[in-house]
Design goal:
Number of strands: 0
Number of helices: 3
Length: 78
């Protein structure tokens, strides 16, 4: 169980750090929400990961896609 908790924290940290590089107000405002959604999606997908060294890249990809979805939703509703 402890290993899973540590992994969850690593995944969340990668998502938050990746989002931190974007300076737009929408990403800053929704950073925690996007990171949380990305972490859940990554966690669901992690069991299928064949190469654990690719975890960070996978989380960044998932986070990037979640951010783009949020941007699209923001522009279509506003």
């Amino acid at each position: 169980m402890e290993r899973n908790d540590r992994r969850w924290g690593e995944v969340a940290d990668v998502a938050r750090a990746y989002l931190g590089r974007f300076r737009d107000p929408m990403t800053r405002a929704l950073r925690d929400e996007i990171a949380q959604e990305s972490t859940v999606l990554a966690w669901q997908w992690i069991r299928r990961l064949k190469d654990p060294d690719r975890l960070e890249a996978a989380v960044r990809t998932i986070t990037r896609r979640q951010r783009l979805r949020a941007l699209r939703q923001q522009s279509s509703s506003g």
